[in-house]
Amino acid sequence: MKIIGLLLLAILAAVSADEAAFIGVNIGTSLSDMPSPTQVVSLLKSQQIRHVRLYDSDRAMLLALANTGIRVTVSVPNDQLLAIGQSNLTAANWVSRNILSHYPATNITSISVGTEVLSTLPNAAPVLLPAMKFLHSALVAANLQSQIKLSTPHSSSIILDSFPPSQAFFNRTWDPLMVPLLQFLQSTNSFLMLNVYPYYDYMQSNGVIPLDYALFRPLPPNKEAVDPNTLLHYTNVFDAIVDAAYFAMSYLNFTNIPIQVTESGWPSKGDSSEPDATSDNANTYNSNLIRHVLNNTGTPKHPGIAVSTYIYELYNEDLRPGPVSEKNWGLFDSNGVPVYTLHLTGSGTVLANDTTNQTYCVAREGADRKMLQAALDWACGPGKVDCSSLLQGQACYEPDTVVSHASYAFDAYYRRMGMADGTCDFNGVATITTTDQSHGSCIFPGSGGRNGTFTNSTSLAPSTNSTVSGCGSEFSRLEDLRYVLFGLLLWSGVFL
Q: What are the residue numbers of the active site?
């Protein structure tokens, strides 16, 4: 049995390796000034967003998406489940009206059947799987079962005892439904849809979960924790939740169903009880999430296996009920203006509003020359920056000053690290500017859109807490930290 499980994991890895992870966006419509479908699609195109998830099957929206190539997930709202789950004919009519009348001009790739039904509408749970089966039968009749997948999004709250991840299992109350549901997903080569919200896990942890862990920021080694059952290291809440779902499925003997995250994000504004719902934190979370997904990092349990994710969401929704944060999960306001500027260099062709592409990391004016030289040596050494352009006779050798050379090396490192927070510091001798530092034939990495490529490295630039002395021991120790996976598991007492 163990060998079969390993073979299934190998198959899953092979399939996922062929399918690169993607970032999509959810498109909510609870806006007092909702843009027209044409305006929405125009924004999607300008931001190079190629995957979207709709919360319904709005005809006007589907028509606007026609012939764009954008991959679309349409949804069956919860209030339609009962009718579809009780009638094969109703399901067939739904597919005819909402899928067949638009496909293939509109590139519909999946159907999201309900949303978080088990946790928000448990009375509808008995009709969930019948609805999925009836819809699938309609797709089979149209010979679209391979092109369009069916699944249903789950809240991560249905996973119990989720930390450490290896101990996770689904709420056993739902076993009579989860087992046949997983059998359906497996038999149709579909995926488990999961909504992952580290923001809520952080808020509900009463200080147990560090903010940096929720935001994908690295933690100091003394905060590192390891799943005692698997010895896997976790660097962020997102991966821990996804792996908890994988372990929960394996507990029910399902090991070859991939996971797709249908919602994840961070609010940019909150009320007095939500101090960490800020634009800076939303920027950090979504920027790091996008890089993490598009690097095909996978999770500790399944490294390299794609975890495609839809960001929640495209627009701020001012009509949503509840606290202030509920209205402020969007990347854009209703006019298409970014709520904050994402840091996405090297993330690929998604969300082109990354105006930080026009920022540069340079030597700080008046910085100590010895500290500059030490930082330059680190960047060109342990920092793994290609400094060949600074050699005598090369494009960026002149002017032959430590300030000029350090500026080039700092900027190259900054872009190599995806312009992430804290990567333009170098013990206080570096700063960010919007002025292009290119001169003559010396072109800085970020000039004219020639951005560096973000690599999945945890190499850390010298921080303001470092002690600099030439290329001394502190820089060497920082380089050694590259090989440490900073992480934390979310069970009580681990941070004491």
A: 116, 263
Question: Are 304 and 417 part of one and the same domain?
Answer: no
**What contacts 258, CB < 8 A, 6 or more positions away?**
12, 15, 16, 191, 192, 305, 306
> SS3 for 149?
strand
pLDDT, tens digit (0-9, with 9 covering 90-100), for 87-132:
999 999 999 999 999 999 999 999 999 999 999 999 899 999 999 9
Cα–Cα–Cα angle for 332, 333, 335, rounded to 5 degrees: 110
- Decide if 430 contacts 362 (C-beta within 8 A): yes
**Bridge partners, residue 75, by sequence:** 112
Residue ranges of the chain whose pLDDT lies below 70: 1-19, 220-222, 224-225, 343-359, 418-421, 434, 446-496
Pick the closest to residue 336 from 75, 122, 37, 35 (CA basis): 35
Of 306, 329, 355, the residue that ends a domain is 355
Number of C-beta neighbours around residue 48 at 10 A:
12
DSSP 8-state assignment for residue 55: S
pLDDT in tens, 134-154: 999 999 999 999 999 999 999
Report the domain count for the chain: 2
What's the domain range around 340?
A: 2-355
Q: DSSP label at 320?
A: -
Beta strands (DSSP E) in 153-204 are 153-155, 159-160, 169-170, 192-195
Whose structure tokens read 């032959």? Answer: 400
